[in-house]
Design a protein that fits this description.
By secondary structure, this protein is of the alpha/beta class. It has 14 helices and six strands. It has a six-stranded mixed sheet, sandwiched between helices. A hairpin with a 4-residue loop joins β1 (39-43) and β2 (48-54). α9 crosses α12 (248-282), α10 (215-228) runs antiparallel to α11 and α12 packs across α14.
Length: 317
């Protein structure tokens, strides 16, 4: 797997990870036009920052982007993204951190996974024609991110059509400065379970294997929700009910792992993103921000609500 592929695997994994979080978007004190996108304008007395919710892997049907998005992007002097996927040094760091935090040293994946999960992974690999040897030294969390990338690809999505990727190319062509909101180490650490037991990683892999069975429908609905600004559909995708899959014996421990993953991937990162946007406003910088749409759409501790609580004016377009 090349570094670029690992990077996109991680980015799309942030989406699938957020499927296990509770969701909903607060609309209090927010302008809601009849036709809307996952695009917000955040303002203080002196300046404004645009924030766009992205799909990291997509298809050509998302383009051209809506005029209001293109216009806001064209006026911006800087583009801020979770991480600059076109930066070779970033790609190297992603590869380095993936090996450091994602590979097993003295045991094999088979030694960690429950027998039924190992069989499910083996069956999926057979269908996708992936040699199991690819995964034998990976920690479960890295297996899950890699499977997510394969699943998106099988569903017809391509990283080159990801909104981040497209806007990064445009920013480079336009001579806009590019700002990273996170480092490669922070991105990897948010997903990585490097504990001796790998218990959270095993739970993450279990949910990924389960969701892959419905991935084609999920992706189709995801693209439609983003193109139409359909909050209800997006929330339904982000709020898939796990209860029917969980036994009474496993629900308590699984809830613990779910909360742990949500805290690392979602709550902690959203707080940092909100602080970065607030800093742009304090410094009167003209920035167009692109982050995964789940960071903006979920109800609990989402970026938009965090900025609203700081007293900024919030408008949705």
């Amino acid at each position: 797997m090349n570094r670029r592929y690992i990077l996109f695997a991680l980015l799309c994994a942030y989406w699938t990870s957020c499927l296990i979080a509770c969701s909903g978007t607060s609309k209090k004190n927010e302008v809601q036009p009849e036709s809307k996108h996952f695009l917000w304008k955040i303002s203080d007395e002196n300046s404004s920052v645009w924030v766009l919710g992205s799909i990291h892997l997509a298809d050509s049907s998302l383009y051209p982007l809506a005029p209001v998005i293109d216009s806001a992007f064209a006026r911006a002097e800087e583009l801020a993204v979770e991480i600059n996927m076109n930066d070779e040094e970033v790609a190297k760091e992603i590869g380095k951190e993936s090996v450091s935090q994602g590979m097993l040293e003295d045991k094999l994946l088979r030694d960690i996974l429950p027998p039924e999960m190992w069989k499910s992974l083996d069956s999926l690999c057979a269908v996708w024609d992936i040699p199991m040897v690819v995964f034998e030294k990976m920690r479960p969390w890295l297996v899950a991110t890699t499977l997510s990338a394969y699943a998106f690809e099988q569903a017809g999505l391509n990283p080159e059509y990801g909104i981040d990727y497209v806007l990064l190319d445009r920013a480079a062509s336009d001579g806009k400065a590019i700002v990273d909101l996170e480092t490669a180490e922070e991105q990897i650490s948010a997903l990585a379970d490097t504990t001796e037991s790998d218990s959270a990683g095993v739970y993450y892999l279990k949910t990924t294997l389960r969701e892959i069975a419905e991935f084609e429908t999920l992706v189709k609905n995801l693209i439609h929700a983003w193109k139409t600004g359909d909050d209800d559909l997006l929330r339904s995708l982000l709020n898939k009910d796990d209860e029917e899959y969980e036994s009474e014996e496993s629900s308590s421990s699984d809830q613990k792992f779910k909360d742990e993953i949500e805290q690392r991937i979602y709550v902690n990162r959203n707080a940092k993103m909100a602080e970065s946007i607030a800093a742009f406003l304090r410094e009167d910088r003209n920035v167009f921000v692109v982050v995964g749409v789940a960071h903006l759409a979920l109800e609990k501790d989402n970026v938009i609500d965090a900025l609203r609580k700081r007293g900024f004016k919030i408008e949705r377009f």
